[in-house]
Design a protein that fits this description.
The chain is mostly helical. The chain is built from 12 helices and no strands. Helix 9 packs across helix 10, helix 10 crosses helix 11 and helix 11 crosses helix 12.
Length: about 230
């Protein structure tokens, strides 16, 4: 039994509870638990020289819990199924275009910085929520650890810039705003969408889950095609 690993688990649990209360009192983007708590944990790990492997000994199951948490988003989707049926074509097209754009932009970014194959595949798989991205990257030869990092950075960046970008685009439709958040910022974006409006959150849920399913089915083919022919 590793005492430091156990303390890391307890610290993570307490930090999340305190971080959530802090965000409820001061609802600023940078204080959101998904942003602020990891920053504090990383800072403490650097200060006390705690390795990633040590931290993950007792915390790895938290990553596994992302799968059931993602499936829990199915409840509001079921409640708004009539709205979804009405916009099924636009949702489908948005997901296909969004995922394809995410894969291609990641590929050219990796090419620009001369990333190796493992890093490139991991970056290209980061356009969906973490549970789907982990499974996808393991099937194409990427790194699970890297794709978790890339996916979280994508989500945090999306939430941080969401309000500014949506305002600049002048999207008045809550449907469009929710789809944009779910498609681009995954779980972080969905949480942000629910804070903005319930309908936005539901659409963000739907696009996030369907984008994950789409990439699980077609992602390996799309990624290998882009890498081979572009």
């Amino acid at each position: 039994m590793n005492l430091i690993a156990i303390l890391c688990f307890i610290g993570t649990f307490i930090a999340y509870i305190l971080g959530k209360k802090l965000y409820q009192k001061y609802p600023y983007t940078l204080l959101a638990p998904g942003i602020f708590v990891p920053f504090v944990i990383i800072l403490l790990m650097v200060i006390f020289n705690i390795s990633y492997d040590t931290y993950m000994i007792e915390n790895q199951w938290l990553i596994w819990m992302l799968g059931p948490a993602t499936l829990a988003f199915a409840m509001p989707i079921y409640e708004y199924r009539k709205v979804i049926k009405k916009h099924v074509l636009s949702i489908s097209l948005g997901i296909v275009v969004g995922m394809t754009a995410g894969v291609m932009s990641s590929f050219y970014l990796a090419k620009l910085f001369s990333f190796n194959q493992e890093t490139t595949y991991s970056l290209m798989a980061r356009s969906i929520s973490t549970p789907f991205a982990m499974e996808l990257t393991s099937n194409i030869g990427g790194s699970v650890e890297l794709v978790i990092l890339f996916t979280m950075i994508t989500g945090v960046a999306g939430v941080a810039m969401a309000d500014m970008i949506l305002l600049a685009l002048k999207l008045n439709s809550r449907f469009a705003q929710g789809a944009a958040l779910g498609n681009s910022a995954h779980g972080f974006g969905t949480s942000k969408a629910f804070i903005r409006h319930r309908e936005e959150g539901v659409i963000a849920c739907l696009t996030m889950v369907l984008a994950g399913v789409f990439m699980m089915l077609f992602g390996p083919v799309i990624i290998r095609f882009v890498v081979t022919y572009l």
